[in-house]
Amino acid sequence: MNAGVGAGALAFLHESRAQRVVFAPGQAAAACAEEAARLGVRRAMVIAAPSEAAIADAVAAGVPTAVRHDDVVMHVPVEVAERARRAAADGAVDAVVSVGGGSTTGLAKAVALTTGLPIVAVPTTYAGSEATDVWGLTEGVTKTTGVDARVLPRSVVYDATLLTTLPPELAVASGLNALAHCIDAMWGPRADPIDRVLAGEGIRALAAGLRAIVTAPSGLAGHEQTLYGAHLAAVAFASAGSGLHHKICHVLGGRFALPHAPTHAVVLPHVLALNAPAAPEARRRIAEALGTPDAVHGLADLYRTLAAPRSLRDLGMPEDGIAEAVEPILAAVPPHNPVPVDADRIAALLRAAWEGSEPR
Ligand code: NAD
C-alpha cells in the first residue's frame, strides 16, 4: 500500500523497527557496555576496520570480548563476509559489536544474517546503516541487497564525539548521504506520512549540523545535530524503501566502484531537480526543512556552503559509463516515482552529474 503525496486520503501502513537507541555524547564506552550487558553478552565479536581500531579500543573496553575482527571491506564482498562468519563460529561468540562506518556495520549485518547473533552498533559516520534492516553483499561487481529483521541492530549507541575525527570532506559527504535518505524517503515506494515527518526533521537537523561542521569541523554541536538527523534519515528511509536516488547510486557504485557517500552527495541535487516539479508536497516539505522558499535552490545553496562534491567524473566514473548505466537504472526505477523516467531523462541526469553542471 502506498499513500502517495496528494493522494487525498489518509490511509497508510507504517511498520516501526524495534531497536533501542541511546544518544550518549562522550559516553559510548559506558553505554556500549550497558547495552551488551542488557543482552547478556559474554563473548562478543568486536568488528572495526583498522582505521577505526583506536575508537573501537576505547568504546568496547567494557564489553567481554572473545574476537576482534578488522577485515572490513566496503560493500561487503561475500568472501569477506564468509571469513567474518567463520571467525564468529571459531570464537563461539554470542553477539557482534560493530564500531565504525557503514562498511563495518555492513559486515556485522552479514554475520547476523546467517547466525542470528544480536548486534550492538556504534556508528562513526552518518551512513545510517545501524538503523535499517537492510543488508548488502557483493559478488564480483554485483551488489545484492535485501531486508531481514535479523540484521537490524538490537541497540545503537550514538556518541557524536566519535565523529569529530572525521575529515571534514568525509563528514560532509557522509552527512549528504544521510540527507539523501531523507529526500528519497519523501517519495520512496512505501513512503508514508510518518516517514515524511521524520525525513523533514532529519533534513532540518542535517542542514544545520553540516553548516556547523564546516564552520567548526571538530565542534561537538554540529556533529550532534548531524548524528540526530542521520538517525531520523535512516529510520525514514528504512520504512519508505529505496527511491530513484538510491537506485541510481546503487547501479553507479556497483559498476564503477565509486565511493559510497560522495556518489550520493553528487547525484542527490539532480534527482531532486528531476522529481520536485511533480512532487509539490515533498518540495514544500524539503524547502520548509531547509528554511528556504524553494527546495532545489535551497539544496544548491547548502551545497555551496558545504563545498560539497559535484561531479561523478571527479569520483572516477568513466564517461562511457553514462550510456552503460542507463538501462540498469531504468530497470530498477521504483514504483510511484513522481516523474515518469525514460532513457533520455536518465542519460541527461547522469551527464549533468558526471560533468558537475547545475541540475536541470
Ligand atoms: P565507510 O564505512 O567505508 O567509511 C569510510 C572511511 O571512513 C573508512 O576508511 C573508515 O575507516 C573511515 N572512518 C569511519 N569513521 C571514522 C571516524 N569517526 N573518523 C575517521 N575516519 C573514520 O563508509 P560509509 O559511507 O560510512 O559506509 C558505506 C557503506 O555502508 C556502503 O557499503 C553502503 O552501501 C553501506 N550503507 C548501508 C546502509 C544500509 O542501510 N544497509 C545504509 C547506508 C550505507
TrEMBL record:
Residues 172-354 form the Fe-containing alcohol dehydrogenase-like C-terminal domain. InterPro entries: ADH_Fe/GldA, ADH_Fe_C, Alcohol_dehydrogenase_Fe, MAR. Residues 19-159 form the Alcohol dehydrogenase iron-type/glycerol dehydrogenase GldA domain. It comes from the Bacteria. Keywords: NAD, Oxidoreductase. Belongs to the iron-containing alcohol dehydrogenase family. This is Maleylacetate reductase. The lineage of its organism: Bacteria, Bacillati, Actinomycetota, Actinomycetes, Propionibacteriales.
